[in-house]
Design the sequence.
């Protein structure tokens, strides 16, 4: 059903290119579809949705930047890290070329989010130099434009804490799990952590379980999953990544009661 829907919407995009509200809506719908599909492990369909978002965004650097976030995430899910980094940085370049007189207040945050996606993609390729440089650029933007968090409509946020969470995940993807956990604990220990959207916090907690597990700490991984479920249950109960992590925790040995309850709720254990 989804491919048919995407096909119909693409036709609308081609027949109404000058209708800016329609283009904004199409980009938003396709981005949401891509984001959900990445979480569900449907990377190919996510790439299709993100590609349609890019088509709908043609001619507008801000819309293209928003679409490129989803495109980078879909490409990373397809294990195309270099392409994901290129997609994000191309969008950053286009935003940099935007005349100052039409630069919108949220575009520094958009640029920062794209830099984070590029850094994460670089880390998946093992390019620690690029990952570090891109993360530092994002950190500079977060500092220069204040210590508030910009919230996007798809559940993401940008600010100093979001940059630190990304720094933890880049370390994890580069194989430095000890450093990843240290940064993670520092970033989630303050009030700013709670200002991020619930979906962002839960998704991060699910992602960081890989570092806990690789360090031989299934209890910490289990606690992260239980906390993620309390924050945003849909993240833990529908994402294959959460199920995989929870299965690994169960296999590691005796589990805490709340972890067992979560596993039973999801259907990984019989009650």
Sequence:
């Amino acid at each position: 059903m989804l491919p048919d829907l995407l096909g119909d919407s693409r036709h609308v995009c081609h027949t109404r290119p000058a209708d800016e509200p329609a283009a904004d809506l199409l980009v938003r719908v396709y981005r949401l579809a891509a984001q959900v599909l990445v979480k569900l492990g449907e990377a190919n369909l996510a790439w299709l949705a993100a590609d349609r978002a890019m088509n709908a965004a043609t001619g507008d650097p801000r819309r293209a930047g928003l679409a490129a976030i989803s495109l980078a995430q879909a490409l990373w899910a397809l294990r195309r890290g270099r392409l994901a980094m290129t997609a994000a940085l191309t969008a950053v370049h286009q935003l940099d070329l935007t005349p100052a007189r039409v630069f919108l207040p949220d575009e520094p945050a958009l640029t920062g989010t794209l830099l984070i996606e590029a850094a994460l993609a670089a880390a998946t390729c093992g390019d620690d130099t690029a990952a570090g440089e891109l993360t530092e650029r994002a950190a500079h933007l977060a500092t220069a434009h204040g210590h508030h968090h910009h919230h996007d409509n798809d559940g993401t946020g940008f600010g100093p804490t979001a940059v630190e969470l990304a720094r933890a995940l880049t370390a994890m993807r580069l194989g430095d799990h000890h450093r990843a956990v240290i940064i993670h604990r520092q970033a989630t220990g303050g009030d700013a952590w709670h200002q991020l959207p619930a979906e962002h916090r839960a998704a991060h907690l699910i992602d960081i379980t890989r570092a806990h597990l690789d360090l031989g700490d299934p209890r910490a991984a289990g606690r992260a999953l239980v906390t993620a479920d309390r924050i945003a249950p849909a993240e833990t109960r529908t994402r294959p990544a959460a199920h995989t992590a929870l299965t690994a925790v169960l296999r590691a040995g005796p589990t805490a009661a709340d972890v067992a309850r979560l596993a039973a709720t999801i259907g990984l254990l019989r009650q």
Q: What stands out?
A: The CA atoms of residues 108 and 144 lie 9 Å apart. Residues 20-39 form the longest helix (20 residues). Residues 1-18 have pLDDT under 50 and may be disordered. DSSP finds 14 helices and two strands in the chain.
